[in-house]
Amino acid sequence: MTGSGTDRQPNNSLEPTPLRFAPSPLRADPGYAPWVCAEGCGAPMKRVVLTGMSGTGKSTLIRELAARGYKAIDTDYGGWSHWVNTRTGIPASPPPAGEYGWGELDWVWREDRIRNLLSTEDSDVLFLAGTAANQVEFHPQFDHILLLSAPIAVIAERFVTRRVTRMEPPRGAWLVSSIM
After folding, report:
1. Domain boundaries in the chain?
2. Which residues of 143-163 are buried (b: 16+ CB within 10 A; e: fewer)?
3. CATH architecture of residue range(s) 43-179
4. Residues 120, 158: Cα–Cα separation, whole Å
5. Eight-state DSSP code of residue 28
6. Span 127-167, pLDDT tens digits
7. What is the Cα–Cα distance from 177 to 170, expressed in whole angstroms?
8. What is the DSSP letter of 18?
9. What share of the chain is helix, strand, coil (3-state, %, to 5)?
10. CA atoms within 13 A on the CB side of 138
């Protein structure tokens, strides 16, 4: 059955597979959750990860996808990720404001939560945004991996002007000057 989702094969060519998602006509109904798969929809949920360096636009894109009604998760928020001690793998406190424990701390996905999220078939498509040291363990479960990039000058400007997330320590101009 072509187009039913049951005939999905891995794309082993070098050509990217275009993503085709249409917004639901039911989106105007305030009680409708457009990301919920209708009973008996049949097609397996597509899983798409948006990844890339800090400042490439992952959070902005995921917010826009959510605003358009897609099931879209930013792994930097909502308990999807946490800091761990790189030597022990044990969860750790975030670094003090203005500091970063290079080599001591790492930002990783909470594997149990991500595994559960990816195993749930409750929508037509799931968009997940984030970059974490352990995300590669989940790559086989994604239908598409989109690597976002931006020119270094754009990323540097975003570092200076952006508000700081829980994941990222304050950077400021000193970081920009060190990479330019």
Report:
1. 43-179
2. bbebebeeeeeebbebbeeee
3. 3-Layer(aba) Sandwich (3.40)
4. 34
5. G
6. 999 999 899 999 999 999 999 998 988 888 887 776 555 44
7. 14
8. P
9. 25, 20, 55
10. 28
Chain Cα centroid distance, residue 76: 8
Going by their DSSP bridges, the two strands 125-129 and 71-74 should be labelled as parallel
CA distance 98 to 85: 18
**Bigger pLDDT: 101 vs 10:** 101
DSSP 121-151: --SSEEEEE---TTGGGGGGG-SEEEEE---
CB 92 within 8 A of CB 85: yes
Cα angle 143-124-81, degrees, rounded to a multiple of 5: 65
User: Alpha-carbon distance 94 to 165, whole Å?
Assistant: 11
Residue appearing with tokens 């030597």: 87
Q: How far is CA 1 from CA 20, 37, 44, 124, in A?
A: 18, 19, 13, 17
Structure tokens at 91: 């969860």
- Whether 28 shows a pLDDT value over 60: the answer reads no
Cα gap 49→74, rounded to integer Å: 10
Chain segment 9-26, per-residue pLDDT in tens: 444 444 433 444 444 333
pTM for the predicted model, two decimal places: 0.67
Report pLDDT digits (tens) over 33-79: 444 444 445 568 899 999 998 888 898 899 999 999 999 999 999 99
Q: Which two tokens stand for residue 131?
A: 């970059």
